[in-house]
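Long-time lurker. I teach an intro course on protein structure, and each term I like to show students one example going from raw sequence to a predicted 3D structure in token notation. This year I'd like something fresh instead of my usual example. Would anyone be willing to generate the tokens for the chain below so I can use it in lecture? Attribution to the forum is fine with me.
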Amino acid sequence: MTKIVILTGAGISAESGLGTFRDVDGLWTRYDLNDVATPEGFARNPALVMEFYNARRRNAAEAAPNPAHLALARLEAALPPGSVRIVTQNVDDLHERAGSRAVWHMHGQLARARCASCGAGWQAPPVMRVEDPCPSCGAPATRPDIVWFGEMPYYMEEIWEALRAADLFAAIGTSGTVYPAAAFVQDASRAGAETLELNLEPSETVSDFDRVRQGPASGIVPVWVEDCLNQLTRG
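-- Reply from a regular --
Happy to contribute to a lecture. Here you go:
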């Protein structure tokens, strides 16, 4: 059975109207990342952090999956269970809303809350407050279930195992600047996987890939998925 690991980044969600770090007029430009995306920032001003992520949650809820999300869901549905694994740096739920089921959110999810005291997680309400009690331990220590700078991403052991077993590794809409995800192509390549970058512009790690396709994700991903399915069907 062919095993495909797909890394997705901000570029795939940007076409659904969700901002990236590099947007000139986006949500991120109105906040200092040190204030809203670090444990230290949360400790200094938790209300500001909650305001930021409540706004991001509203933004994500208003967005819809685009053709790239839908194509990846189609790829997963067309192949045997366990053939496709999506590892996403994105904290929105657009992959799931498109129909994908095998998704690991390595940087957490906007739709989830976590207790800073006991570590329990739960579905986030539309508006989160620091004083919201933890459903597990009761502590007023709610925080977004987001992996901030300086924290360890989720699923790392599982991701490395999947990369070692992959026949194909594809990176979609990633900048290649954020580690450990930026090293996934090298990990997969060392294990013998074919590697492919699909991106609007070349990433920082483009030279590490065997093949490259450039263009908007909503255009090139459906074409690539169609090519994959045709190739696997012939094979």
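Some talking points for your students: The chain has a mean pLDDT of 93. The radius of gyration is 18 Å.
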